[in-house]
Amino acid sequence: MLRRTLLAGLPLSLALPEAAFAADYGSFLQNLRSRALAAGIPASVVTQALASLTGPNATVLKFDHHQPEFTETWATYSAHVINPTRIANGKAKYGASQSLFAALTGRFGVAAGPMLGIWGLETNFGAAQGDFYVIDALATLAWDRNSAYFAREAVSAMQIIANGDAPVGTLTGSYAGAMGQPQFMPSVYLSTAISFNGNGAPDIWNSDEDALASMANYLVKAGWQPSQPASEPVYAHLASADGTGRQNVRTIGYWQGLGVQRLPGAAQLPDDYPAALLLPDGVQGQAFLVFPNFTVIRRYNPSDFYALATDALGRAILS
User: Fold this and answer.
1) What is the mean pLDDT of each run of 10 residues along the chain (319 residues)?
2) What DSSP element (H or E) covers 108?
3) Which residues partner with 275 through β-bridges?
4) How many CB atoms lie within 10 A of CB 138?
5) CATH number at residue 159
6) Do 173 and 285 reside in the same domain of the chain?
7) How far is 242 from 233, CA to CA, in rounded Å?
8) How many CA atoms lie within 13 A of 118 on its CB side?
9) Domain total for the chain?
10) Which pLDDT belongs to residue 233?
11) Predicted structure pTM score
């Protein structure tokens, strides 16, 4: 699932200053070139990075201007993204990489389930990374949206090239500029991507080890609590949804006092552990207790459905 919420949620405050915007795309590219040079990117790299850009990418514009409305229920969404094929692919990936996941958990404290869930939803375990030239996509969005954010990301992508981490021809990703198996924006790559073995530049496109280590590093930097779950399904027989929701954090004991029942096999957590109750489809649908690590997953993608689905997919793969 190539990330779309990024594009929908950018505030207008990230627009370029009016004087920096150019209606003509060629003039815009000259402005972008000046920004990159001012940021210390070598002129030869800037020239190489922008050489193939002759106009805004029409396919990027089409995707950006025709993003679908997200009105699915949790039941429909979860059935779509946590499907038998994806679960089977995840089981195969995990079966072939158990030692890698064990090493990652030992190093970062992030369990296999959340990593498998994010990996599966982001790129179907690396199979659907997107094939857009990232600088082309980012420049198009920066020009069309008059966005300083996407302009900065284009400069960050040039920095990746300047660092020797990836040549121009391999700097590919989604139409939003998100790259590789973890779907990192260029600035996130620069700040967070790591080489699992510590040898050479992180290859989040072709190396499962580097992609998963970088993903785990992102979660740790976002505040991941080792050995703690993010969410769990529960039984909740409530008359109304009043007082529920991600922002209404209480304790496990509080929710149990209202009749919420945890399921067999749930993580051993104290009664005073902070938790919120999510009823994504209302009182008649599924119910979940969500914990501090749920908020960490939402920093990867700010959607309750996404964060619930990553956990649910991980549980299904490991079951």
Assistant:
1) 46 44 85 97 97 95 85 93 97 97 97 98 96 97 96 98 93 96 98 94 97 98 96 94 96 96 95 98 96 97 96 97
2) helix 98-108
3) 250
4) 31
5) 1.10.8.350
6) no
7) 19
8) 29
9) 2
10) 98
11) 0.91
